[in-house]
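Minutes, methods subgroup
Present: GH (chair), OT, SY

1. OT presented the first of two proteins processed in the latest run. Sequence and structure tokens recorded below as shown on screen.
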Amino acid sequence: MLLDDRLAARVSALIDIGARRILGIVGAPGAGKSTLAAAVAAAFPGRCVVVPMDGFHVAQSELVRLGRADRKGAPDTFDAAGYVALLRRLREPVAGETVYAPEYHRELHNAVAGAIAVPAEVPLVLTEGNYLLLGSHGFGPVADLLDEAWFAEQPEDARLARLVARHERFGKAPGAAHDWAHGPDQRNAELVAATRGLADVVVPMP
């Protein structure tokens, strides 16, 4: 995906401010958030770092203990407070200090700590995830920590097809992939859709 001129201009405006800025990319599961974030990073190499919200998934073993593993991806299966704390730290970089963020690895079903380096001199942090504009489950402070929020949107049939294919790619049988995409993921998608009107820009995804 190539970033269009309209979106590139918005990113340039954030970078040109001169102080650290945070751009949030929101969307339902499978809507193309990661694709859009990657397009921004590719268009502005060395000037931004992508820090996904998914790094704050609660560990699989803890979800099992809590009885929430069967709806992994719901708002209460994330460490929202940890995510908010990281965003606050990223907003106020200390000269010469690199902040390390966690990264979710689908093949491990867990996050890996310290996997993403964010040097102090990088002017823009891109953060992408489902619940950046959600007012509940501990995510309420996130919106105020973003300088701008984009909502990635894709037609439902295409989004669901992509989501099923992704689940299959990471180990789910076809039937289980379909059931998860149309069950737990769909309930989460409906929560995300309700936050669409809070975004600064809606980005139709190919």
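2. SY then presented the second protein from the same run.
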Amino acid sequence: MEVNSVVVVGGSAGGFQAVADLMSHMPPGLDTAFFVIVHLSRKSVGAVLVQYIQKHTSYLCSLAVNNGHIKKGHVYVAPPD
């Protein structure tokens, strides 16, 4: 699955709702990968953010991993720290 575009969204710890609102308005089927970076300090919060965004979008959400393959239709959340 080739990615034709990438969208990167950044925010502070209070940006959970803004990110969820943005993703809820993304039409399904875009040839796009989304990257979300939110200022988080606790490791456990990363998984919570992934679950929170997943409730608001049909795109598959997961924590990003180093050297991971980028797929269209995915939302990659940067891990804390």
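Chair's summary of item 2: The radius of gyration is 12 Å.
Next meeting: continue with the remaining queue.
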